Amino acid sequence: MTEVLADSSKALFNEGLSHGASEAPELLEAPELFPETTEKLELLTTSLPQRPRRLRRTETLRRLVRETNLQISDLIYPLFVMEGENQKIEIASMPGCYRYTLDLLLGEIQQAYELGIGAIALFPLISETQKDNAGTESSNPQGLIPRTVQAIKQTIPEILVITDVALDPYSSEGHDGIVEDGKILNDETVAVLVKQALTQAAAGTDFVAPSDMMDGRIGAIRQALDAAGWINVGILAYSAKYASGYYGPFRDALDSAPKFGDKQTYQMDSGNSREALKEIELDIAEGADILMVKPALAYLDIIWRIKQCTNLPIAAYNVSGEYAMIKAAAAQGWIDEKQVILETLTSMKRAGADLILTYFAKEVALILQ
Ligand code: PBG
């Protein structure tokens, strides 16, 4: 047995020959493969017309043919703000992420902006005493988020500010909507969300980002913004937001875990992907400017599928649990943190995301600089 290939395969190979056909084939020792023989193997691979490895030879070349490039300008940095002064408190399940008082938050945003990050998404920590079932504090014009937006717009006016629209940080029940008899009311909640969005617009936000998953909220918010003259305030719609175990650390950060039950009557079922198309269709018709898929990593197929159906920009939310997993494994020394961060975020872009919300934003900016 001396031939690597059967005669028919060899003929196929030879058809592909363009160079070096007349050279004698090299011979190779392969005693471990064919212990019964001491004869030489013919090395036929010299005549391969396609050698994918040719394009992987050097970093310069790899960069030249790279299909997907993660860029600092793709990133949106989510940040947690709390009342008080001169304090930042690390979130135990999100090492490296903090709740900031407004004064320190401004410094963090300034740094992010200087690193090239163009947008931030804000989430508030609200004290239990300010929470109620209807999330009334969410539309207080002097509330934490409106004051924060105003301060950012005064100090770092160029950075794009995105504010979350949902009741959970303000809800005594820890739900994204008003609760009655253990159920989440839809239309009543939408009326409160509209007020919240108008309050944020008046404070100067660039984008409102409804993350509540109530039906019809995108249309109601768009109409109300337009009627109030805020035609340039955009809507980043959490369109395909799944009921997910990956939000745990975020709920620690905001003390916003549901007090009863879960969010499965409004957030999507993880088994569904056609339903994501239904959701984006509705959000587009209702006036969304950017569509979001959340979480990102376990839903890359959803990003891909939505990309085939719309020309609107798609955002992926690399959520708190995805952040925590990488941080935890890296802390153990089990993975190379930088490599895994870049690989993970690149997978989201490759799947079709144009923008990525990620707690790694600053770290990535430092790597890519
Ligand atoms: C709430 C909201 C959540 C996140 C963003 N907005 C949590 C939830 O729906 O329970 C999660 C973000 C993250 O996990 O990083 N409307």
Question: Could you characterize the architecture of this molecule?
Answer:
α4 (144-155) runs parallel beside α5 (187-203) and α9 runs parallel beside α11 (337-351). 39% of the residues are buried. Helices cover 36% and strands 18% of the residues. It is of the alpha/beta class and 369 residues long. It has an eight-stranded parallel barrel, surrounded by eight helices. The chain has a two-stranded antiparallel ribbon with strand order 1-2. The protein is globular, with a radius of gyration of 26 Å. The chain contains twelve helices and 14 strands. The structure holds ligand PBG.
Any key phrases for this structure?
single chain, 369 residues, alpha/beta, eight-stranded parallel beta barrel, two-stranded antiparallel ribbon, 14 strands, globular, disordered N terminus, binds ligand PBG
- Binned, the helix content reads 25-40%
Q: Tell me how many strands there are.
A: 14
Tally of DSSP helical segments: 12
Order of helices and strands: HEEHEEEHEHEEEHEHEHHEHEHHEH
Compute the average pLDDT: 91
Instruction: List low-confidence stretches.
Output: 1-25
Biggest sheet layout: 8 strands, parallel, barrel
> Ligands bound here?
ligand PBG
Structural class: alpha/beta
Strand order of the largest sheet: 3-6-7-10-11-12-13-14
| Share in β-strands | 15-25%
Give the N-terminus to C-terminus distance in angstroms.
Answer: 56 Å
